[in-house]
Fold each of these.
Amino acid sequence: GIQVEQSPPDLILQEGANSTLRCNFSDSVNNLQWFHQNPWGQLINLFYIPSGTKQNGRLSATTVATERYSLLYISSSQTTDSGVYFCAASLQGGSEKLVFGKGTKLTVNP
Amino acid sequence: NAGVTQTPKFRVLKTGQSMTLLCAQDMNHEYMYWYRQDPGMGLRLIHYSVGEGTTAKGEVPDGYNVSRLKKQNFLLGLESAAPSQTSVYFCASSQAPGNYGYTFGSGTRLTVV
């Protein structure tokens, strides 16, 4: 099955800093999503982005499907950005079974 | 709009006991999923459903059963709980395959002693 790898596993920032999170996947995908899990455990869908670039406020994401990676950019980070960011993907031609990476734990200090 | 609702939120079971976790969605989504989350493991798919009356196995289905008798509900059952099933369980739903993201419930924290 598809392999999804995220880096870095941990990231500590000062408030106001920018960051880039990376997601590599092993096969062609038809579904690529980014999620944020807040410190209370709630999972929030950030982006559905199998290809191209999207932006939502201070967050943006880019997926280069031909090179099998996706990037999540966080600009001007805030303490509320803390939590774990997951990338998840499913195979092209397969069902909607998302496979999750192990996540990047982000800590933003005031 | 409640989205995806999971009950219960917390539960402690003794080894060998059974229980059912309920997931309900009010978005008329076709697809529903059960995941478990363990420390350092990310989320792993247990079972999923592509529509009312259908179910299929995911990555880690052993020890679990599911049913989707109504489109809005997806039940996860543990027939004989084991300590290895201590985990946080998440339900999610999505519209038909295509350009749609997942919506997750708030999770059920299950401890098997």
Note: The first strand of chain A starts at residue 4 and ends at 7.
Amino acid sequence: DAGVTQSPTHLIKTRGQHVTLRCSPISGHKSVSWYQQVLGQGPQFIFQYYEKEERGRGNFPDRFSARQFPNYSSELNVNALLLGDSALYLCASSAFTSGGAPVNEQFFGPGTRLTVL
Amino acid sequence: AQKVTQAQTEISVVEKEDVTLDCVYETRDTTYYLFWYKQPPSGELVFLIRRNSFDEQNEISGRYSWNFQKSTSSFNFTITASQVVDSAVYFCALSLIQGAQKLVFGQGTRLTINP
């Protein structure tokens, strides 16, 4: 079975530009989460989406937005890029019970490495 | 708010030595999960274990073992007879059982196993 997939693998942008990162969850998983990992640090939570609705948001500016599609894939958008947005962006998928409790752990994709010049 | 602290930034040992990675967490909630993830140079986070706050039983999986102690808010990870392939950055993380499945990660411990 395919794991979590992310595209692109690498991306180079300049300050002020906009970027869209994509993620496809494991088949059967309806939740997708996004994390930002700056070099040398642990991942930081950005968003979680479940059944196409935002379930949680981390402490990130409004320049960061996301959405989830009917097939449960997701996009992370970042506007007005800053040098500090350079990081590895990780997507994770997971399953939930109808009661809202996680069924299992979050499975991570290989990440998209974004460099802002 | 939740917080995870991994005080050991880097550890370097010789192959076949045992090594313990420390993790201390803070949360006011009584129901939560604790995790360990491994991040090899490729960058992908690999899940190792999840523990429920209700279950303080220690766990062993091959050369890996985990010691969960609520009294000290610690969830330590031991690798027995380390191998070069164990070299990676290891992250401890916490998430609450209810609400958003937000993982709060520690800073990570870079483990280097020398031949």
Note: The mean pLDDT of chain A is 93.
